[in-house]
Amino acid sequence: MSKIPSLISLRGVTELKYVNADNVTRYRAIMRFLYEQYQKLNYWLKPEQIFEGVMSWQLHKNYTLEQCQLDLEQLVEWGNLSSRHDGGRSVTVEEYLRKKYQYLLTPYSIEIERLLESLEKVHGYGGSLEPTLFDWIADTLFGIRKHAGVYEQGQALELWNSLYNSFQRLHETSVDYIASLQTNKAEELMATDAFLLYKDSITQYLRDFVQALQRRSFKIEGNLEQIKAGVRDLFLHAVVEDEWRIPKVEEMVTKEQYFEELLEKWNGLKRWFIGETGSTSELALLEAASKEAVVKMVRSAIRIQERKRSTISRRKELDYLGQCFYRSDDINSAHKLAAYAFGLFPTRHLQGQDNRESDSSEMSMWHEPPNEITLRSRSRKKNERLDTDSVIDKSAKKAVLRKEYIQRHKQELRFVIQMVEKRVIRMSEFDTVSVSERLQILQWIGLCTAASTSFFYTPEGVRIQLKQPPNKERTILRCEDGELELLNYEFQFEVANSDAWNEMIHWIEV
After folding, report:
1. Strand pairing partners for 483?
2. Does residue 1 register a pLDDT over 50?
3. What is the pLDDT of residues 85-123, one digit of tens each?
4. What is the β-pairing status of strands 81-85 and 455-457?
5. 3-state secondary structure 183-236
6. Which of 10, 301, 424, 440 is exposed most, by the fewest CB atoms within 10 A?
7. Rounded to an integer, what distance in angstroms lies between the CA atom of residue 47 and that of residue 24?
8. How far is 206 from 294, CA to CA, in rounded Å?
9. How far is CA 332 from CA 175, 320, 328, 341, in A?
10. What's the rounded Cα separation, in Å, for the pair 269 and 264?
11. Distance between CA atoms of 206 and 210, rounded to whole angstroms?
């Protein structure tokens, strides 16, 4: 669940007023100059310094120092600047009492200017696919498991920053890159011949990322599953303690509030890789989007190649070949020319009546009379109306097939009832199973292994969970049609929806 915003977080942001104010160019020039000086470690500035810096850009010809002071006071009122009295230059009491201030950017304004600076550099979605981040995240999670709550001073904070920064980078860059392939510009490029020049490189880039995702994501999921709540809380508390060792002069949230923020971020990371019950993980969606992008690239390239082939005219070549046939002296030379020109083409089967006059295999097809075949017109003109046949009644056949399906389905459900009564069973404990039971067992294994949680729910309200055998133990499953060697899995059956279960039992009995 997303965090519920507070009333403070939903307040009107007065600090953004200068971005769209009437004199926006003057305000933004002042803020940009102060931001550049802030990056150069020049914090408190006098109005004269600000005025000279703004005027050096030659953006305002009739701008005066008095107007600059009024703009600075307006920015202070909006909360963009902090001001303090400047009495350093005073010689007399009157000069000291006169209003002279120095100005400093507020934290809100610094972040706003950083955002505006980054927005000026945005020319598209950008992004990239970096499969090495999967290894980095997996190694960091393994380090958290390895220490199991025992960390040196500053180590937990370093692990957390490495983990979450890598996760954010993986999410943002990959999502941005996939989004860049869906833009109108990308669509237009995929329709041009120039796309064929780097189609292979993009396709290989996407395929490498998908393969790395499939191979390495299991390490991340396994580490997240094995980091239990106790180890997780010890780690996050260690991160809080490391953060609180850093001296800060400004007010911060309490330790409890900071721990709740870290816990929410951890749960978000876990949901991204593993998902929740009844919902698909973001990792699976990213994999599907990457595969769809590969398919889209290939289809675009095929369309371009087909379009190029369809526009090639072979009229001159066929005309020249026809003249060669016309100049042939006899039929034998024409046969040889046809063999050299056309070779062996895929056969075409034309249905018709064979009117051969002789069964001799030595007689050439050229001496046989032609077979007349009526070809259907491809004209769009409406053909003459033909009499339609009556609809064949297949209700009896449908009733038989329906009865067979119901019997087969009831047989499968009876097997499920037997398993629920056992609750827990290993592969080695099965007696000789029928063909349909073997197919059911293999289907359960496939559904459980495909799910990140190793369990799934049947339509009848049964929760089927699969557990891996220790030490990769193997066994033999004896079936009516042979023997099957596989891992000695353990199935756990539990009725999750009693209403659906009771309804199913009643249906079988009826």
Report:
1. 478
2. no
3. 776 666 566 555 556 788 888 888 888 888 888 777 655
4. unpaired
5. CHHHHHHHCCCCHHHHHHHHHHHHHHHHHHHHHHHHHHHHHHHHCCHHHHHHHH
6. 10
7. 18
8. 7
9. 66, 19, 9, 14
10. 9
11. 6
